[in-house]
Amino acid sequence: QVQLVESGGGLVQAGGSLRLSCAASGRTFSSYVMGWFRQAPGKEREFLAAISRSSISTYYADSVKGRFTISRDNAKNTVYLQMNSLKPEDTAIYYCAAAHYYTRISDDYYYWGQGTQVTVSS
After folding, report:
1. Which residues contact residue 80 at a Cβ distance below 8 angstroms, ignoring those fewer than 6 apart?
2. Coil, strand or helix: which one is 29?
3. CB 3.0-4.6 Å disulfide test: which of 22, 38, 40, 119 passes with 96?
4. If you compute the radius of gyration of the chain from its CA atoms, what whole number of angstroms results?
5. What sign does the CA torsion over 102, 105, 109, 113 have?
6. In what order do the strands lie in the sheet with 4-7?
7. Average pLDDT per 10 consecutive residues for the chain, totaling 122 residues
8. How far does CA 112 lie from the centroid of its chain?
9. What φ, ψ does residue 88 adopt, rounded to 5°?
């Protein structure tokens, strides 16, 4: 089992940047594909990015491609989401999640963090 804890959220002005971190417990972090999702009030959970076990492959939603970068450090059991050029519509709760295979489908992710709030002011 994997426990995930996100951090790094906060309030930022439009055009600014934030770096989210997701720390995982356990010694099997490197065996999981990791993903980032977000959920805004009144909206469904949205896939943002995924990264393969060895960081060879990454995949992004069109809404964040070119602005967000996912990365991981298996030695630190941590996955990151660097967010640049933030927009007010990026305001949401951001979640990291772990899956057994490369996917953008939220139901395929077995383990989830508690989320971290990101608020972008205009």
Report:
1. 19, 20, 21, 22, 70, 71, 72, 73
2. helix
3. 22
4. 13
5. positive
6. 4-7, 18-24, 78-83, 68-73
7. 95 98 91 97 96 96 97 97 97 97 94 97 95
8. 10
9. -55, -35
